[in-house]
Protein 1
Amino acid sequence: MAEAAPRAGWPVLASFAGYRWRWIRPDIAAGLAIAAVGLPSAIAYPAIAGLPPETGLYASIAPLLAYAAFGPSRQLVVGPDAATITVLAAALATMPGLAAADRPAVAAMLALIVGGFYIGARLLGLGVLSTFLSRPILVGFFAGISLSIITGQLKRVTGVDVEAEGLIAPFIDFARKAATIHWPSLALAVAMFVLLQATSASRLPIPGPVAVVVVSVVLSALFDFKGHGIAVVGEIPSSIPRLALPAPSGATFDQLLLGAGAIFLVSFAAGIVTARSFGQRGGYPVDANREMIGFGAANFAAGLFSAFPVTASDSRTAINANIGGRSQLASIVAALALLVTVLFLRPALAILPIPALGAILIAAAVSLIDVPALREIWRISRIEFVFAMIALFAPISLGVLNGVVVAIGATFAYLLRKMMYPRDALLGRVAGHEGFYKLHRHPEARPVPGMTIALVQGDLLFFDADHVHARLHAIAEAMPAETRWLVIDASAVTQIDSTGAAMLEEVRADLARRGVRLGLAEVHAEVRALLERAGFLDALGTGMIFDDLDDALRALEAAPIAEETHEQEAEEGQGRGGVGGV
C-alpha cells in the first residue's frame, strides 16, 4: 500500500489522509490484535527497569494516541521496547541516590526530555542520518529482529527457563534443559500456531491473533490451565493513566540529560530502523524527520502520563502489518482496547495463557523474514549480502544500537574503500562517429594522435589523491613519444580539495618536464573555482581549459608545435611555485 505524499510542515493526523471507509474493519481487527499481543510485554517490561507494571500499560495507551495524531506512518506502532527499556534501566542505575518510589517520576521525566531531543533533532534536520541505512541493512536487520522475536518465545512456549541471549546460545541453553520442557505448554503453543495458519489460509473474517486469544482464554477457563502449570498473564492493575507533570527527585540535571541522551540514541536507532524496515516491506516512503515528530509526541505523552520512554515496537508493528492495518486507527483501537481491558476485562485476561501469545509472536516473526530478498541480494552483490548478514547477526549479538552502528560502519568502510580508488579510462575516437569512446570497451576506437585523453571517474580529495596521481603517472609513462597533450576529462569530478589541487600541479609539472602539456575539459563550476583560488589555473594557462573534448581536439589541431612549446616554457616560468603552498 502506497502512502499519500507527506504534507509540508508538521504532520497532524497525516496517517489519515485519504482514508477509506472499507479500511475500518481491518484497522479494528489489527488494533485488537495489537492490544492482545502488547498486553503481556506492557506488564513485563517495566520490571527490567524496576518500575511498577502499570507504567507499562500507560506506555501502551497514551503514546499510541499521540503518535496517531502526529506520526506520519500509517502502520507503525509505538510502545515499550526491550532495547529502550534496557537503556532506561542502565540510566536509572547511574543514579545511586534514587529511591524505588522515585523511579517512576524520574522515568517519566526522562521520557519528556527524550521527546525534547526528538523535536530538537527534527529542527536540526538530523533525520538525514537514517539515509545511511541501506536496503541490505534493512532486509538483514528485519530478519534479525524476527529471529530475535522467535528465540525470545522459547521460554513462553515451552516453560523452559532459557537465560542465554543471542541467536545460537538460547537454543544451546534450551537443549541442555530439554528435560524441563512443560509439554502441555508446548502442545498449546503448537495448537495455537496451527490455528493461526489455518485462519490465515482460510481468510476468515476474524484475525488469527484475536481468534487465538479468545479460544485460549475459553480453554483456560474450562480446563484450569494455571492449575496444570501453564503460565498465564496473571493479575492486571486496575488503575488508569492520569495526566500529571512528573516531579523527579533523587536525580541531578546532568544525570537526566545524559540518561535521556543515551535513551534517545537507542530509541531513534531502533525506531527508525523498524520504520524503514516496514516501509521497505510495505512499499511506502519513510521520512525520518517527520518520524521524529511522531516519536517526540509519543514520548511527551508517555512522560505526562507517568510512563517511560518509548519508540517503534517491531512486534506490534509486525502484528499490525500481518493483520492488514491500514491507518493509525489501529493504534487508537489498541489504546482504547487496553484501557477497556484495564477497567473491565482484567479477570478474563488474567487467565490468558502465555504460550498462546508466544505462538502469535512466532507466527508474525516467521512471516517477516524475507528470504527472497536475501536471495536476490546474494545474486546481485555478495559484498552487500555480507552487510545484510552483519545487520542480521549484530543486533542479536551486540544489541540494537551497537548492531546498527556496526552494520553502518561496515557500509561506510566499503564505501570509503571504493571512493579511495576511483576508476579511470583512456578515451579515443571511432571513425565515422561523433564523440569519444573508452578504448577498453570499444576495440574499434583509436587514440587521438598527439593527445592522450584520460577520464577520471571520481572526485579528487585527500583520501584518493595519491591513487589518482599514481594512475596519471602510469598513463604518462605509457604515452606515445609524439604525445603533445594529456587532457583530463573532468566531467565526473564534482568535488576537489586543496590536496587534489596540489596533486594536479605535481602532474602538470611532471608533464612539463616531459614536454607535454596538461589540459582539463568539462570542469564543473565549483571545481574550477577552487582550482582558481589555488592558483592552479594560472599555472595551467587559460588556453588549456576546455568546455568539452571536441574543443580540446580543435585547439590541439590549431596549435603549431613550435609556438606551443614556446608558450609552455613561458607559462612554466611564470607558474613555478604557483600552487606549491596548497
Protein 2
Amino acid sequence: MTGVLVASAACRVAPKLRRTRAMTSPRPFTPRSVRDGMAALYGAAGAEAARLRGAQLNAVVRLTPFTMVANVGSASVVLWVFRGAVPPGMWLWWLVILAMSGLATFRWWRMRGQVLERASRRALHHATLQAALLSGAWAFMLIWFPAASTPQQLALATLVTGMLGAGTFVLASLPWACMAYAAIYMFASTSALWLAGDPLYAGVAVLLMLYTPTVVLGALFSWHKGTAQFHAEAQAVQRERLLAVLLQDFEQHAGEALWEFGRDGCISHPSSRLAELLETAETEFRAQPLVSLIARRSPAAAVALQRALDAGRPFRDLQLTLDCPSGPRHLKLNGKCLLDEEGRLQGWRGVMADATDSVEGERRLRELASTDSLTGLANRLTLRQALSEQLREGRRGALLSIDLDRFKAVNDSLGHSAGDELLKLVAERLRACLRPGDLIARLGGDEFAVLMGHAEPGPDAGALAERLIKALARPFELQERHQQVGASVGVALLDGSVAGVDELLVQADTALYDAKAAGRGRHTVYSDALGERSRRRLDIEHGLRHAIAQGELALHWQPKVHIRDWQIVGAEALMRWQHPTLGPISPLEFIPVAEQCGLIGALGQLGLREACRAAAGPLAGLRVSVNVSALQLKEERFVDSVREALASCALPATMLELEITESVFIDNAQGALSQLHALHALGVQIALDDFGTGYSSLAYLRRFPFDTLKIDRAFVNEVLLREDARIIVRTIAQMATALGMSTVCEGVESAQQLAAVSQAGCEQIQGYLVSKPRTLAEFVQLRQDWHRLPPITAQLH
C-alpha cells in the first residue's frame, strides 16, 4: 500500500550537499523531541539530514514488493466479498488500486539493488502526498460500507483495521506520511460507521478514534528510536573514519610507531615506521617475535623488554638502546596488555618512539652544563655536588684550592687566546698529577680545585699539593716562548670537623690566600689559627646580628632592561652593609656567614619585606627580584612569610620574583620542589640564577616550571672570546623559549657583549653597562630620567 510513495520519493534523491547543524545526541521521547526531530528531518538542508532522509526512505523501499502484493490482494478480497452484486464503480476502484500498485512496483524494479544515500526534502513531501493519495483511494471504498450486508461490513472492517495498523507501521520512518495515512483512514472509517446508522457502530467509531492515535504514537516512537540509532551509527562511522585518518597520519608523519603482537610475539600489523626504527625489513616482523628482533640489536635491551612483558602489567617509557647499523638508537616503549573476555592475556599493544635525539641532546647539554667549556674539567657546581656527597658519606679526604700566580701577566702581554691556551696546558698537567678517584675542577678564571677522595688528612694532601706546585712551576711553551707561571695551593681537610660545603670552600680559600700572602709558589693547610680571615669572619658574624637589629643593612637596586624595547622591566634587590669599623662588606662575604651562623632567615625576611614595600611604593609597576638562600627554602614557614610580606604591602604576587640557585637541589631536592610549587601557586615568579653552571638544572627544569633563567656571568664574560660560550648562551636561550621561560643575562658590561647576547636570543640584560646597583632614591631618579637617556642598542646598528 505504500509502494507508490516510496518509489516516487526515491526518484527525488537530493544530489547537492549543504552545510547543516550537527545532530544532537539521542533525547527522551517527548513531544518536544518529536517536534524537533521532524523539523530536522523535513526542514534541515545539510548533508547529514539528507542522509537521514535517504535512510528513512530506504526503510520503506525494501518493503515495496510485499506492500504492493498486499494492496492488490486486499482489493481483490473486497471484490470477492461483493461477488454476485458488485456495486457500480467498484471495478474502476479496483483498477485504480491495481494501477497504483503496478506503477510503484515498476519503479521499485527499476531501482532495485540501489541504496539511497541521500534524499531531498521534496522527496519526503512527495512521499507524504503519495501516502495521502493511497489512503484516500482505500478510504473511497468505504462509501459501500453503509449499504453492505453484515458479513460484508465485517470483512471491510477487518480489512480496514489491519491496513490501518500495518500501513501506519510500514510508514513509521516517515512521520508526516504516517500521520496523513492514519488520519485519512480514521476520518473515512468513522464517517462510514456514522452513515451506517447503527447505534452499535458509534461505540466502534469511538474505539477506532482511540485505536488510531495509539497506533500513530507507537509508529512515532519507532521512528524516534530509529532516528537515534541512525545518529549513533553515523557518529560511530565518523569516529572510525577520524581514527583511521589519525592513525594513518600518525604512522606516516609522527616520530612514533604503533606495535601489536599476539601470543606468538610476532608483530600483527607491521608498518614502515616500525621497520625504520628497528632498521629491520617489514617481512621479518611476521617471521620472528619482536623480542627476538630486538635481541639481534641488543641482548640487554631484549632482556629488559622481556622482563617488562613477563611482569604482565602496563609499562611506560621503557628505554632501550640498540646497536643498529646506522649507530646507537635509543627507543622508548609504552605497552598495554590485551586481554580476552575472561581476562586471559592475548598479546600486547603499544607505541615505540625514537628518543635518540633527545637522549643525545640531553647528554650533550649535561656535558656542557657539568664541565668547563674551555678545559673540559668539571665546573663549580659539579665540584659542590661531589663535596656534598663526600661529606654526607663521611669519607675522609682533602680539598685543594689552586690559583695561578702570574696568569694576568700572560693575558695582558700575549692576549686572551694565549691565556686560554695556557689554561688548557695547566689542566693537562693537573690531570697528570692526580690519582684515580680524584676530581679536578675549574672554578673560573685561573682558579682550579682538586677534591681528593679517601686521602689521609695532612700527609697525602700536602704531598699532592707539592706535586701540583712543581708541575705548574715548569715553564709553559706559548707562542714559541717559555712562560713561567707557578701556582699557590690552599688545603682544607675533610676530617669530620667540616660542617658543610661552603665552610670547606671558605677554608680552602682562606688557606690559599694565606699561601699567596706568604710569597706564592707554596701551599698552606687550613687551621683554626690562620689569623685575620677567621677573625674577620667572627667580627662579621657578631656585627651582622647587631646590623639586623639596628637597621645598618640597606637594599640597593640594579635594573633589568628588556633588550628589544630598551625599557626597565624589573629591579633586583641587592643587600648592602656598611660596617661601623670594617667599612663596606660585600654580600659575597657576609651572606655565607649569615647562612653558617643561622641568621640567613632574619636577613632574608628583612630583604623580602623591604623589597615588597619598595615594589608597592616607589618602584610600582616593576617586578622586583629577591635572592633566596637554600637554607631559607628549608624553613617550614617560608611560604607563609612570603604571603605575609605581600599582604602587608598589598603587593600582587606576580610583581615579586624570587631568585634561587641550583644549589638548593643538592641536599633536599624534594623539599625544595615542594616549597617552590607552593610559591608558584601564590603567583610568585621563580627565577633560576646562575643557570648553566651545573647539570642539576636540566633535570629540575622538567620538574618545576621556572619563569626565568638567568644565564651565569661566566658565559657572558667569554661570549666574545669563545665560540663554545656563544653556543651555550644561544642553546640556553632557545631552550628557555621552547619551555616558555624568559632569559636574563647577568654581568653585561659592554656594548659588544650586549650585541652578542641579543643575537643569541636573550631577552633581558643586567649589568654595569646599564647601571651599577643604586640606592632606592638613585634608582627612582634613574627611572625618571630613563626616557631622556639614549638607548645603548642604538650603538649596535
Protein 3
Amino acid sequence: MKTPLHLALMLSAAMLLPAAPAPAATPASAGTTQAPSDVYYEIFVRSWYDSDGDGTGDLNGVTAKLDYLKSLGVDGIWLMPINPSPSYHGYDITDYEAINPQYGTMADFERLLREAHQRGIKVVLDLVINHTSDESPWFKAAQDPHSPYRHWYEWATPTTDLKAISATGGPLWHATPDGDHYLGVFVAQMPDLDYDTPAVRAEMIKVGRFWLDKGVDGFRLDAAQHIYDDRETDADNPVALKKNLAWWREFHQGIDVSNPHAWLVGEVARQNPDDLTPWMGALDAVFDFPLAIRLVDSAKEERDRDIGATLERMSAAYRAAAHGRYDNAPFLSNHDQERVMSQLANNPEHMRTAAAMLLTLPGHPFIYYGEELGMRGEKPDPQLREPMRWYRAGKGPGETTWEGWSAGDGPAVTVEAQQADPASLLNWYRMLIQWRKDIPALRDGVLHNWRDADLQVAAWELDDPHGDVLVLHNLSGKPQTVKLPAQRFRSLLKHSRPGTAVADGRLQLPAYGSAILH
C-alpha cells in the first residue's frame, strides 16, 4: 500500500522527467575533447560543500567538487564573496586581501586555483568595492574627522537632505553613534566608498591586481552601476553614468597591468536593454537582466516574447558600443532572485525549455548552483541561497547545514538521484552544455532573428565562420511543424526529443523539443 509520503516522493521524481527521454550528450571526438562551452557556474561557498564537518561550505569543498563541475561541462566558476565579513552572505567586506576564516586559508584558495586551472576551469571572484562593511578598519578610522580615511567615505554636511532616498529605495544617509551621517546605498552596515577620492581608486586597483597576481581570471563586479548612481534621482542621470563608466575604464586599465586578459562582468541591474549599451565599452560583459525576464516568461507562457528580434537589435548595438569587444552574459536567475523552478511554478517542461534557450545563446551563460537540479527558492534572501542538495537522504559527507531547506524539494532534487538517470534535469543540462562544445556557433555566432509564423517556436540564426546554424525551441506542449528557409538548414545537428525530423523542407519539432540545424 502506498502511503501519502510514498506518493509525494513518486510525484516529485516524476516531475523531473521529460515527456520522452532526452538522448544522452553526444561524446566529443578525440580532437574536440578540449572544446570550450563558455558556461560559468555561480557558487555560494557557504552552501556548496563542507570539507571539515562544521556545517559550513568552504574552499576545500569547492576543490573537492571540481570534478562534478567538470562533468557538468562548465568552463568557469564565479565565487560569491570569500573575504572576511561579519555577515553570512559576505557582501560587506572588512579585508579585501584576505580569506574569510570560515571558508579556509589563503593556501586553500591557492590550491583551489591550481586544481581548477588544471581542469581548464577559470575562477572569477565577486569584487564588492562599491561599499565596505561598517566594521571595516577603514570605516572605523573614518569616524575620526582628522583621519586620512575620513575622505574615503561620503559624509553629510549641514545642508544635506538626511531624508533622501537611495537608488535602491531605502534611506540614503545613516547615523553613527556620534551623530554624523554617512552615505550608504544599500543598508547602514554597508557604507559607500567615495570614488572621488584618488586614494580609494588607487587602493581598489591594488586590490584587483592582488587577486590577479594570485591567478584569478577576472571579477564579477557587484553593484557596478552604484559607484556613482547613489540617489533615487540618479537612475537616468547622465553625469552619474559618465562617472561610473570612467571609473570602470580606469579600473580595467589598472588591473590589465597584472593580466591583460582579465575578464570583467558587471552587475548592472537595469530592466531596459538599451540601458546596458553604454556599459559595453567599459566592461567586457554585463549580466543581461532584461533577457532573463524574457527567457523565463517565454518558457512560462509557452510563447516567444520576441527573444530573437530583441537579441539581434541589442547585439548589434552592444557590439557597436564595444567597438567589437562585446561579450554577452545571459542567465536565468542568481542569488538575489527567486530561483527559476519557483518562477516556473515547479513545471519541469518549462524549466527544460528555459535551460535550452539559455544554453543555445552565444556568449558566457551563467548557471546558479542547484539550478541544474531544479532546486526551488523564494525570498527572503537566505532561502535563495540554501545548501546544495547532494544526497537523497538530505545528509551525507559534505552536505552543509548552516541553513535548512524551505522549498519542499524531495529526494529527486539531488545530485545523487539525478547523476545516473539519463532522463534527469541534470543530464539535460549536461546534454545542452555538450552541444555548446560540439557547435562553435552556439558560443561565438552572430545572432539574427528568425521568425516562423508560429509564436510558440522561439528561433534564431547564428552566423559563424565554422558554419551557420538555426536554433529552434518548441515552447509548447504540442508538436510543431516549421517550414524551413529555401535550400538552407536541411541537416539536423542536435535535437533534444525523439521524433524530431527534417523532411520536405519542414522540421517536425516535438512538444518542448529543441533542434539545431545547419
Protein 4
Amino acid sequence: MPHLTGAEVRDPELARLTGLPFDDDDEILKAAIDEASVPALLMSMVHMTGDLSILDELPRPFMLIAMDLQGGMSEPDKDAVRARAFEVARDYRDRGCPPPFVPDEHQLRVMLDVISAGQVGSEFVDYVAADLRITDVDQNGPALASSAPQRAGFPVVVIGCGEAGLLAGIKLKQAGIPFTIVEKQPGVGGTWLANRYPGCRVDIASQYYTYSFEPTDHWEHHYATQPEILRYLRDVMDRHGIAEHVRFDTEVTGAAWDDATSTWRVRVRGAHGGVEELTARALICAVGQFSTAVIPDINGAKDFAGPACHTAAWDDSIDLDGKRVAVIGAGASGFQLVPAIAGTAAHIDVYQRTPQWMAPNVHYHEPVSPGARWATRHLPYYGRWLRFVSWWPIADALDEQITIDPDWDTGGLSVSAGNQAIRDMFIAWMRAFADDEELLAKVTPGYPPMGKRTLQDDGTWLTTLQRDDVDLITDGIAEITAGGVTDTRGVHRRADVLLWATGFDVNHQLGPIDIRGRGGVGLNEAWGDAAYAYLGVTVTGFPNLFCMFGPGTNAVNGASIIYNSECQMRYILGCIDMILASGAASAEPLAEVCSDYDRRSQERLQTMVYAHPAVSSSYYKNAAGELPTLFAWRIADYWKWTHRPNPGDYSFTKPFDKPFDKQRTQEVS
C-alpha cells in the first residue's frame, strides 16, 4: 500500500485536505475539542504525535453507530479523551504544527480496528486509506499513458452540470482534455438547483456529501440544506475555473454516433430556440436519475384552479400564508416540505400512498458548531476521520442487514435477524414521539426496513403530523377538482394550493434526450424499462459513451452519490486514456461482458431487501419488478472495479496491438 509521508502532507494542497496549521489560543482550542467527534479526535491525536500507544491508554469507541458521531462512548470516556486531546493539540501547536504522522499499512490497521471496534476487515483497508488520503491512489486517478497532444485532440461533450457534470469538467481539465458542458438550467447544481422547496436538504452527512478532494468546513448543518449545497458547488466550480466551459440555458435534444468519423454529433437548443450541432470524440451523460419529475396520472389533475407545482420545479411566487394546502406524496421531499411550511399555511392535508421508514438521527436539523468547524479545518486528519465516522456505519457495514435470510420468516416484516433489530429500533424511535396508536399505524410500514429509501428523522415528522393544522390522509385519491381533492371514500377536502411531492422517473433517466449509437439504435429504446450499463458506465453499441449516476449505480442506503461519481469519473478518464494510448478511435464494452454484469447485478439484487415481495411498490422497481437503478454490491467493490478499465472488457475500432490481461476487471460470484 503506497502511503504518503508527513512532508508530502505538508504540501499546501494536500494540507487543505488533512488539516491546516494553527496558532489559536487555548480557549479556541478547548472549545473545538469539546464540540468535536471523540472517535475522530482519538485518531487525530495519533497523527499529531505519531504515538499509537495513545490508543491503548485511552477509552475507545464502543462501536460506530449510524447517525452517531461519538462511537457509542459514555460521557466519562469522552471526557477522558477530550482532556488528553487538549494537551496533545496544545503541544502540537506549540511545536509549530509539524507535518502530521502518516501511518503505514500495519499502523493504519490498528487505528481502524480501534475506531470501528473491529468492524473494518483487512479487505477494506486500501479502500479506506485512499479516502482518508493516507495514500495517494485516489488523488488523481491512474497514471495516464496517453500523450498530452493526444488528449488535447479528444474533445468531450458533457450533458448536465450537476455534481457529476461538474466533477467531469474538473477531471477532464486536469487531464488536458478539451470539453464543453451543456446545462439546461441557468447555473450549476443540477437537482440542487431545481429542488429548492422549503426544507430541502441532503440526507447523507455533509462531510460525506462532499468531493473527496474538496473538503470544506463551511457546512452550517450536519446534513446540509439546499442553499448550502448549491453554494458549495458554485464555490468548487469557481475554484476550478469550470464556468467558462459551460453553456448554460442550453438543452441537449439528441446525439448520434457517426461511424465514419468516430465522433458524436450532439444537437443542442439554446434559450431562444436556436439549434446547433457540437462534435465530440466522447459523450458523458451526467443527467443522473433525479432529473425527470413525475406527476401521477390522477383524474382531474389539470383541472385544479389554484396555484400548483412539483417540488422539483418550485414556484417561489406561490403564497402559502394562510392557505389550505394539499401535499400529495409523503416520501423524501414531502417529508422535508411539510414540517417547513407548517405554521405558515392555515392547514395542510398530506396524502400518503405508503409510509416510509424513519431512521433515528438527532443531528438531522442540527447546526454544526463553530468549534466543530474549526476542528475540521485544523486538527490533522480530523476532518477525514469525521468523514469516515459519518459513512462507514451506513454503507458497507450494513451489508448483512439488507441481505435476505432465506430461513427467516416474519410474514414480510423483516428479512433477517439484523434487519428485525433495525425494525425494532425504528419503531421504538417513532414511539418516542407519538403515543397515538391510530397515527402510529398510519406511519408504520408493512414492509422490511431498508426496502425503500430510508428517511432521516429527529422527531420533526411525527411532531408535525400531530399539529392541529396538519392531517395525514392514507386513503387513495379518486380525483382532483378545481377546488380540492376527493379521496376514494368520497371525502372532499378543499385546497387553495396543490403541491406535488411525487418524486422522479428514475427508470427513464434520459427523459426526452434521444441518444443513438451504432446503426441508429436509440438508447431509450434499447433500455426500455430496464436500463443497464457495464459498471453503470458503458453500454454495448454506444462507443465512447459514458454514464455518470447511470443504471445500477444508485447505492440507496447510505452511500454518497458524489463518492460514486468520483469512482465513475476515474474509470471514464481511464477509458479515454486507454482508447488514446492504444491508437484506437473508440471503445465499447463487449456484449457478453455488459450482459453478464447486468445479469449478475439483478441476481444479487434479488437476494436483497429491495426485491422482497413485501416491498410491493417502489420507485426502485420497474413494471417487471426488476431493480435496474440500484447498485447490488458494496461500495468497496465498486471502488476497486472502477480504479482503471481492463482492455479485455472492451472491443476497439482499430486493432489493439499491445498485450493486455483478458481477465475481467472484477471478480464477483
